[in-house]
Design a protein that fits this description.
This protein has an eight-stranded mixed β-sheet, with helices on both faces. The chain is globular, with a radius of gyration of 15 Å. The relative contact order is 0.24. With about 170 residues, it is of the alpha+beta class. The protein starts with a strand and ends with a strand.
Length: about 170
């Protein structure tokens, strides 16, 4: 399905839906090495899929819900096809968007998700049909957890978190 998020539209399916995952890859023109995000309803779901120390929990808690995707060490609950093959990490997110939260509440499980970005398009689709600048068109800089940008991917392996891709 296509659905709105805090930052742009995304494509998503249930974690066990291999056909849905294959369809997202086909629509986006993605290879088998693409890293999907688990979009979780709350910290209870979030905690099932990633390992967090107390210090990291406080940092993540301060920045959620919202437009952050955190790239964290995965638990054994994460399906292998969603793991980074060498690092055993997964992207996870807790959205603040009402529609996305309603979908997650109805499903009772996270969504496997990817930004709605078509193969020949360099701009993500935003609400109202607007488009933004090309993904990755930014510098890799330290990110202050207290601020809430429109969307960022963060790899947390220590402090401070580092933006690994800019919107």
């Amino acid at each position: 399905m296509a659905y709105p998020t805090d930052s742009c539209y995304a494509l998503g399916c249930r974690p066990g839906n291999k056909e849905g995952l294959d369809r997202i890859k086909e629509i986006r023109g993605l290879g088998s090495d693409h890293h999907f995000t688990l979009v979780c309803r709350d910290f209870a779901q979030f905690g099932q899929f990633v390992h967090l120390s107390n210090a990291l929990f406080r940092q993540v808690k301060a920045a959620t819900p919202g437009g952050y995707t955190f790239i964290l060490p995965a638990t054994k609950e994460v399906p292998r096809r969603l793991l980074h093959p060498r690092k055993k990490t997964v992207g996870v997110r807790i959205p603040d968007h009402l529609v996305t939260q309603a979908l997650l509440a109805e499903l009772g499980e996270p969504l496997v998700s990817s930004t709605l970005l078509l193969p020949d398009d360099r701009h993500r689709l935003l609400a109202g049909g607007a488009r933004d600048s090309p993904p990755g068109h930014g510098r890799h800089l330290p990110v202050r957890i207290g601020g809430r940008p429109r969307a960022s991917n963060l790899r947390i392996s220590g402090s401070p978190p580092v933006r690994v891709r800019s919107p």
